[in-house]
Amino acid sequence: MQKEALSKGFIYLLLILGSLLMLLPFIWMISTSLKAANEVMIMPPKWIPTDIQWGNYIKAWFSAPFAVYSVNSVIVLIASTIGELITTILAAYAFSRINFYGRDIIFSILLGTMMVPGEVLLIPNFVTLSNLGWIDHYQALIVPWLASVFSIFLLRQFFLSIPKELSFAAKIDGCSDFRFLWSVMVPLAKPALITIAILKAIGSWNAFMWPLIVTSSENMRTLPVGLIAFSTDTGTKYELLMAASSMIILPMIILYIVLQKYIIEGVARAGIKG
Q1: Which family does it belong to (predicted)?
Q2: Which among 78, 92, 121, 274 is least buried, having the fewest CB atoms inside 10 angstroms?
């Protein structure tokens, strides 16, 4: 009994230390956001500011058109999340319930594309969008991200865990595949769909490289790209940069905390059956 208690205590200690290590950058970010400019680069660093500068958040907000960036980020997030959910539902159902020639081969090829680094696709995608005249438009920020192989794989695994007897019974009652999908499968897959939506929302909100490449005007920039406003030829205003960063990540932290149980449930149930 004592041995088991010591073992659990050691595990908890490791988890606490790991959590503190993960939280350290966030603590430093918040601490820096509240410092005066002359305290930011002091060595050794001061974790608690001498004089808390709440005004840094106001200065950061008005240092660039963050209201415009926020609207763009929200539009891209909503459009890309809804689009990915639709394509994921349709593709996952096809790969899990509909028997067609070459289904497993096509699905294996799709999984294989996950091995390709995203950086390799930057130039081909940019050239394609440039030829379509979509650069510096919402289409460039949304359309390339309307489908995700990982999301299709996750939802397919969830669909496979749903008994086939439900589809047999529905077909006997005269239910079409399309109606069965939206009336039965989608409601049952709510945990997995919420998981996919959350992961997509976080990824879309935090995206930096792609929006930086395909946007050239301030009217089309998103929040992460807007952070470059604090880095100029004369240097970087770290206290304002950290204040803006804190404001940007706050909505996603709240979203994750509120809905984290669905992420755990969705991932756990998706692995029941392969």
Answers
A1: Belongs to the binding-protein-dependent transport system permease family.
A2: 274
**Backbone dihedral angles phi then psi of residue 235, each to the nearest 5 degrees:** 130, -175
In this structure, the answer to whether residues 142 and 83 fall within a common structural domain is yes
> CATH number of the domain that 123 lies in?
1.10.3720.10
| pLDDT tens-place string over residues 147-195 | 999 999 989 988 888 888 887 787 887 778 788 888 888 888 888 898 8
pLDDT, tens only, 195-219: 899 889 989 999 989 999 999 888 8
Q: Where does a domain end: 53, 79, 97?
A: 53
Domain containing residue 43: 1-53
> Does 94 reside within a domain?
yes
Which residues are CB-contacts of 248 (< 8 A; sequence separation ≥ 6)?
Answer: 205, 223, 224, 227
What is the C-alpha separation between 57 and 226, in angstroms, rounded?
15
Sign of CA dihedral 205, 209, 212, 214: negative
Query: CA 86, 92, 93 angle in degrees (round to 5)?
Result: 95
